[in-house]
Amino acid sequence: MEKKTFYLTTPIYYPSGKFHIGTAFATTLTDCIRRYKELRGFDTYMLTGLDEHGQKIQNVAEKKGISPQEHVDEMAGKAKDLWKLMDIGYSDFIRTTETRHIKAVQKIVEIFLKNGDIYKGKYEGWYCMPCENYFTDTQIVDGKCPDCGREVKKMQEESYFFNMKKYQDWLVKFYEENPHFIEPESRKNEIFNNFINPGLEDLCISRATFDWGIQMPNDPKHVLYVWLDALTNYITALGYLSDDDSLLKKYWPADLHIVGKEIIRFHGIYWPIFLHALGLELPKQIYAHSWIVMKDGKMSKSVGNVIYPETLIERYGLDATKYYLLRLMPFAQDAMFTPEGFIERFNSDLCNDLGNLLNRTIGMMNKYFDGIVQALSSTKTDFDDELESFVYEKIKSFEECMDTYHVSNAISEIWNIISRTNKYIDETAPWILAKEDNKEKLSSVMYHLVQNLRIIAILIKPFMQETSNKMLNQLGIRDEEFMTWESLENYKQLPNNVKVIEKGEPLFLRLDKDEEIEYIRNEMKK
Ligand code: MSP
User: Fold this and answer.
1) How would residue 139 be classed by pLDDT, with cut points 50, 70 and 90?
2) Is ligand 1 within 6 A of the CB of residue 231?
3) What is the mean pLDDT of residues 271-295?
4) pLDDT exceeds cutoff 90 at 55
5) DSSP-derived secondary structure for 198-242
6) How far does residue 468's CA lie from ligand 1's centre (Å)?
7) Coil, strand or helix at 127
8) Which of 30, 164, 226, 354 has the fewest CB atoms in 10 Å of its CB?
C-alpha cells in the first residue's frame, strides 16, 4: 500500500546573523513532528531554507564589505552546518536566490499580471526597515512598528500592488469553512481583529529603492517585495511551474506550515490569497508558535542575553538541548529560557527520572535474572494491571497531543510514564520480592520495567534519537520489530531472547548546578 504523504515546512530564515535558540526552536519543532510522522508510517517531506533577498540583507552585506550574494552563500553554509549538528532531516533546503525559485516566481507574477491581480500605483506609508514592511496610520503603535516595535519612516514610492480587497469575502468565507486553519485560535483572532475585520488593504509588492531582489518580469527596475518572493518558496521548491512538478503533485497541499507568531499575518492572509489566485489548493494547517524570550525580554546581542544552540549542544549534548527547547514551549504562550531552568530540567528530568530508571532496571535485571528477560508470568503483582492501563492511556494521549502539535504536552505524557514507572519500583519493592524468593512476581516486575523503558525509548525517538538508541541497546532490544510505533501495542510480547547489557552507562551525568548556571550566563554575555 502506498504511504500517506505529509509535507511540512519551517519558515525560511533571514540570513542576517547567527541563528540563536529561537530560530533553532522552530526547526527542531518541525523536525520533531516530521520524525513522529515517519514513525507513524507517513512518507514525509520537510522543507527549510533561506529567505535571501531584501534591503536588510543588502545592508548587512554592505556593512561587511562583500556582495549580498557572497554574504548569503556564506550564511547558507553556516545554516546547513547548524542543521547538520542538530541532526535535522530536511528533504530540501531552498534558497530564494536559486534560479529554480527566481524563474518560478517571475512566472507567478506574470500570471497575477495577466489576471489583473497586480496593478501599478503610488504607495505612501510608514516603512519599517528591519521588517521591510509598510504600515498604515492605524496600524502603527505609538509611532512605532506594530510587529517589532522599532522606528518607522514615512516613505512614498511608485509600486506594484496586489489587489487583496478583491479576495476579502472569499477569505472570510474560507475561514468560516475552515475554522482550524490557523492554530492556536488566538492567533487567528489577532489577524481578524487587526487586518481582516477592518477590511484588507491592497498589498504593495514591489520596490524600486533597492535592487537586491527578484525583478518584476514586466518592469525590471522594480524588484519584488520580499514576502511575495518568500512565501512562494513552499511551492517553487516542489517544482511549481517548472519542467518537473512531480513533487508538487505528490506533496501539495502542504499538511503543515510551522511559523512564528509574528509572521502569521503573511501566512494567514496573503499566502492563502496568492494560492487561491493561482488556482492552487490551500495548505491544510498553519501552526503559529510563540517565542522563546529571556528574563529581560527578547534575545538581543546588545542586551547580552543571546544563547546559541551550539553552546548548549557542545556542553550538554544534542538530545538534552532538543528536549529542553521542546518541553519549554507551551502551545500558545511565550516561553522563558533561563540557565537555572535548563540545568534543573537536565538534572531532574534526564538524570534522575529517566537515567536512574534505566540504571536501576539494568542493575536489578542483572542481579536477579542474570540479565535475561523472563516470559511474562501469570502471577502478577497488585500494581501490574493499573500500570499497564496507565501506560496505554498515556500513549493514547501522547498521540493525541502530537497529532495536534501540542509537543510540550506530549513530552509531559512521556515523563508521566517515567514517574509512574519509578513509583512502581517503590510500590512493588523488588528487593523484598527477591528476599522472599518470590521469583514469579519479581519476574513480572522486571518484565514491566523493561517494557515501559522500551515504550519510553520509542516515544522519545522524535526528539532524542541517540538516547533512544542507547536505551534500546542497553535493554538488549535488537529486533527492529520491537522499535516501531505498532509494537507499542505489544505489551504482552517481548522476544524471549532479550538480555540486557551487563553494565549500563549512565544516559546523562548529573551537573553541578552553580557551576553550569555560571557557565551559561557567561556564554550569554559573549
Ligand atoms: N524570512 C522570514 C520568514 C519567511 S517564511 C516564508 C522570517 N525569518 S526570520 O529569520 O526572521 O525568522 C524565522 C523564524 O524564526 C520565524 O518563524 C520566527 O518566529 C522564528 N524565531 C525567531 N526568533 C524566535 C524566538 N526567540 N523564539 C521562537 N521563534 C523565533 O521571519
Assistant:
1) confident
2) yes
3) 97
4) no
5) T-PPPEE-EESS--SSPEETTEEEEEE-HHHHHHTHHHHTTTTTS
6) 30
7) strand
8) 164
* 8 A C-beta contact, residue 345 and residue 322: no
Q: Could you identify the atom of ligand 1 that is nearest to the CA of residue 259?
A: 17
pLDDT band at 334; cut points 50, 70, 90: very high
Of the candidates 258, 345, 260, which has an alpha carbon nearest to the alpha carbon of residue 298? 260
With a 6 Å cutoff on the Cβ, whether 292 touches ligand 1 is: yes
Q: 259: Cβ below 6 Å to ligand 1? A: yes
pLDDT at 131 over 80: no
Residue 290 confidence (pLDDT): 96
Lowest mean pLDDT among 180-194, 320-334, 337-351, 490-504: 490-504
Say how many Å lie between the CA of residue 252 and the centre of ligand 1: 23
C-beta neighbour count of 519 within 10 angstroms: 17
Ligand 1 atom with the shortest distance to the CA of 258: 17
> Confidence band (pLDDT; 50, 70, 90) for 297?
confident
**Identity of the residue numbered 457:** A
Q: How far apart are CA 269 and CA 32, in angstroms?
A: 27
| pLDDT at residue 176 greater than cutoff 90 | yes
Q: Residue 476 is placed in which grid cell?
A: 538488549
Does 12 contact ligand 1 (Cβ within 6 A)? yes
State the pLDDT at residue 135.
85
Cα 484 from Cα 271, distance rounded (Å)? 37
- Whole-number Å distance, alpha carbon 119 to ligand 1 midpoint, is 30
pTM as predicted: 0.94
Count Cβ atoms within 10 A of the Cβ of residue 301 and give its class: 0-12 exposed, 13-18 middle, 19 or more buried: exposed
* Burial bucket for residue 427 (CB in 10 Å: 0-12, 13-18, 19+): middle
Query: Is the minimum distance from the CB of 294 to ligand 1 under 6 angstroms?
Result: no
Among 406-420, 429-443, 485-499, the range scoring the smallest mean pLDDT is 485-499
Q: Whose CA is nearest to atom 5 of ligand 1?
A: 11
H, E, C per residue of 56-80: HHHHHHHHHCCCHHHHHHHHHHHHH
Q: Is the CB of 13 under 6 A from ligand 1?
A: yes
23 C-alpha to ligand 1 centroid (Å): 6
Top-confidence residue, 468 or 302: 468
260 alpha carbon to ligand 1 midpoint, in Å?
A: 6
| Residue (of 222, 258, 275, 207) closest to 33 by Cα position | 258
128 lines ligand 1 (CB under 6 A): no
Q: Is the CB of 51 under 6 A from ligand 1?
A: yes
Mean pLDDT over 479-503 rounds to: 87
